[in-house]
Amino acid sequence: MLVHDTVATGRSQADTDQIRASLRARYDELSAEYEQAVLQSQVLRLVEVGDTAGDDQADSGTKTAERDTAQSLLRTILDRRAQFERALGRLDEGTYGFCEGCSAPIPVERLEIFPSATACVTCKQSRERRAA
Fold first, then answer.
1. pTM across the whole model
2. Are residue 19 and residue 72 in the same domain, yes or no?
């Protein structure tokens, strides 16, 4: 299915271009956020390496928790960025806005709230129930 196939997607080229611009903007924001988080993580490591003299168990625990939080943030940003990258790919393929599970259109309201959604609410709920 092609992006320009407005019969299959129900979208005009202008709509597709607007969606692409929005997805790309969010992807770029996440990339900038990731770069900033990497810099902060590096600074945290440098401070940690240079400031270990006299640390007790509480200090070490705090530094470990801060390091773990920073790593978790980096992983979260990378995951979100990958979701937007995937959404852009789906847009190029002409499958953006359609559920990967049942192929039904994902409601526009859901895509407005969660632009990288790949499942309709019903399929998403089914997945979550199976995972629980």
1. 0.76
2. yes
Clarify whether residues 64 and 122 are in a common domain: no
How far apart (Å, rounded) are the C-alpha atoms in residues 119 and 101? 6
Same-domain pairing of 80 and 20:
yes
Judgement on whether residues 102 and 86 belong to the same structural domain of the protein:
no
pLDDT by residue for the chain (132 residues), tens digit each?
333 344 455 678 888 899 999 999 999 999 999 999 999 888 877 776 666 656 677 766 777 788 888 899 999 999 999 999 999 999 999 999 999 999 999 998 999 999 999 999 999 999 999 988
Structural domain including 58 reads 1-94
